[in-house]
Design a protein that fits this description.
By secondary structure, the chain is mainly α. The protein has 18 helices and 2 strands.
């Protein structure tokens, strides 16, 4: 066993250590430190009336203070907002109540893996250990995503650009979500993995990962068309070069209907997944209606209203993918633009600062700009890191970011 582990370690490329593991460890420990200091030095008012934390007995309990009375600060700081929904699905499965926020609004892969990891490790059945399983899953997924990101970008760009993209993702203002009990890191690993194996012409594996991504987050369906563009581009868009492996695209296309069939069998109507979005104010509509409302009616930025913050992160994505038209592969640009349309088609821009994290072409563009300009690199790393620390403190104390 020891010899096999040694052989496996020797197969790991040397860059994984200093270009992935070290930046990962430094940024995650830094986020833990600033959140812990925030608990003791700065206590903004908690807005959310149903805030909770894991108590001394390992179960969820209402929060009375966010200071030193927290018995598990380094676990609780990663479990706010949607984390509670994922933990509830992992523990008890799906439920639905018309007119109220329900777990059916969340896709199943991430909580299913939390439950599987928890059971595989034979952990106790308290909320604390489900939370630990979620944190572990998110961070392992993040490391895998970073390895894939570096490997994928190294195909087309310099090693410096590929490594820089990893760093830029880790210091992005909302990167703490990639280590929290959220599905973003798992979704990112599956998405980049799908593109990586697509570039290797391993389409059955690429489409299998794409299928898993579609049952991880709602925007998973976005990667089907960009992957198809990649497939056709590899054959110079010649229909004569289409092979049997095109059938692999059936996998991601069929994944969503399978989940909807499950919901229909459990709740009697597959449309509950859309109805469950309504209590959060999400309704499918044309993007220009959403943008028109934000630009004409959004209130000033405050602790309760973040529309302009959301809009700024959407604008960042738009600018990034626009620049990417000149320096990105066609399929990557296509993915970026489909993300822009999707994120702005729900009647609101809430959570866009978090959604930006999974659009890896954005970080490729930022890395290219950073490679060309030392001023841009320094400015981005400093400003993004400062915002990341601030946002981590705000999030860890039950105030809304995305």
């Amino acid at each position: 066993m020891i010899e096999q582990i040694s052989v496996l370690c020797r197969r790991i490329p040397p860059w994984v250590g200093h270009e992935v593991v070290v930046p990962f460890a430094v940024t995650r420990l830094s986020l833990c430190l600033v959140a812990w200091l925030g608990f003791h030095l700065w206590r903004p008012a908690t807005i959310f009336p149903e805030s909770w934390q894991i108590d001394s007995k390992g179960n969820r309990g209402a929060i009375t203070t966010l200071a030193s009375t927290d018995p598990h600060p380094f676990a609780n700081m990663w479990a706010r907002w949607d984390a509670g929904w994922y933990l509830e699905i992992a523990r008890t499965g799906y439920s639905y109540q018309a007119g109220s926020p329900s777990t059916v609004a969340f896709f199943p892969l991430y909580p299913l893996l939390i439950r599987s990891l928890h059971d595989l490790l034979f952990l106790p059945g308290t909320d604390y250990w489900f939370l630990v399983s979620g944190i572990l899953l998110s961070n392992v997924s993040l490391i895998i995503a970073l390895v894939y990101l570096r490997a994928l970008l190294a195909i087309d760009y310099t090693v410096g650009i590929a490594a820089r993209a990893v760093l830029y993702l880790l210091v992005f203002p909302t990167s703490f979500f990639l280590s929290a009990v959220y599905a973003e890191s798992l979704f990112l690993a599956l998405t980049i993995g799908a593109f990586f194996y697509g570039r290797q012409h391993r389409w059955p594996l690429a489409c299998t990962l794409a299928a898993l991504a579609t049952v991880c987050r709602s925007q998973g369906i976005l990667i089907v068309l960009p992957l198809l563009v990649e497939y056709l581009q590899q054959g110079n868009f010649s229909f004569r070069k289409i092979g049997w492996n095109l059938l692999s695209f059936v996998l991601p296309v069929a994944a969503i209907p399978i989940f909807l069939f499950f919901l229909s069998g459990k709740f009697g109507d597959w449309r509950v997944i859309f109805e469950a979005q309504q209590p959060w104010g999400r309704h499918l509509m044309w993007p220009w209606y959403t943008l028109s409302w934000v630009t004409h009616h959004a209130p000033l930025l405050s602790s309760e209203h973040h529309e302009w913050l959301d809009f700024s992160f959407l604008a960042l994505l738009v600018v990034g993918v626009a620049i990417g038209l000149r320096c990105l592969r066609l399929s990557y640009s296509f993915y970026g633009w489909t993300a822009v349309v999707f994120f702005s088609s729900w009647g609101m821009l809430g959570s866009v600062p978090r959604f930006d994290l999974v659009v890896f072409p954005l970080f490729a563009v930022l890395a290219i700009l950073g490679e060309k300009s030392g001023v841009f690199h320094t400015g981005y790393v400093i400003s993004a890191s400062m915002l990341a620390g601030l946002f981590m403190v705000i999030y860890s104390q039950w105030n809304w970011i995305a």
